[in-house]
Amino acid sequence: MTTLRVLTRRPGRVIGLLILLLFALMAVAGPSLYSGTLAVDPNAIYSSPSSQHWLGTDFAGSDVLQEIVVGARYVLETAALSALFTAVIGTAVGLVAGYHRGPADSALMRLTDFVLTIPGLPLLIVLSTIWSFGQPYEMAIALGVTGWGGVARAVRSQTLSLRERGFLEAARGLGLSSRHVIVRELLPNLAPFVAMNMLLAVIAFMGAEVALFFLGVVPFSSSNWGVMLNQAVFSGGAMDSPAALSYLLAPLVCILLITIGIVLFLDAVDELFNPRLRERP
After folding, report:
1. pLDDT category of residue 52 using cuts at 50, 70 and 90
2. Dihedral of CA 170/172/174/180: which sign?
3. With contact defined as beta carbons under 8 Å apart, do 76 and 139 qualify?
4. CB 196, CB 69: distance < 8 Å
C-alpha cells in the first residue's frame, strides 16, 4: 500500500512508470509482433505518417514504427545489462574497499583508478575487430566492465561514512563476520543509493550505445535506434529532406521519452527509500 500511495501521490510518477512499462513491453513483445526481415517498398520511400504507416517510412520504404519496435529490445536490454554490471561490480568493490580499508582499500582503489583511465571509445574500436556486438550482452559487457569505476568510488565514500555508525560497531561487537556485516547491515543501507545510480546509468548507457552505432564505431550487426540514426543521416539524406523528418526524429523521441520516464520515476524511488520525504504533506 505504501508503494502504491507513493507512486500515485504525484501524476508525474505515474506517467513516468507508464512510459517505462510501455517501452519494456515493446522490448519484450516487439520482435515477436514483427518477426522476419523489414519489408521494402520502393514505391513508398519517405511516405508521410498514415493509417498504414503510423510513423511514415524510411529511405527504403520500410515502416519506421516497425524499425522502432524491433530496435527497442537491443537498446533497452543493452542499457539495462550495462547498468546491472556496473552496479554489481562497483557496489562490491566499493563496499569491500570502504569497509576493510588498509591494503585491500588501496589495492581496489588503484584498480578502480586504472578502470577510470581506460579510454572507452578506443577500447570498443579494438573490441569491434573480434566481437560483432550482435548480441546485447556483448555490448553490455564492454560498457559495464569499463563503467563501474565511478560507482565504486561513490559507494566507497558512502561506506566510509557509515562504517563508524553505532549499528555497525554493535554488529562488530557481537562478533559477526565481515561478510554478514557487509551483506546484512551495510548493503541494505546503501541499496537506495545504488538503485538510483543504476537507473541513471541506464540513461547514460543508452545514450552511449546509440552514439556508438550512430558514429559507425561498431559494426551494424543488429537493428537498433543507433543504426537508424546513422542511416537516416549518412545514407538516407534525412538532413536534406523534410519528408524524412519522422524517420530521423522517431528514435530521438524514444530516447527522450525513456529519459523523462526514468527521471519522473526516480522521484518516487527517492521517496520510497527515504522515510523523511514521506512525512512531507
Report:
1. confident
2. positive
3. no
4. no
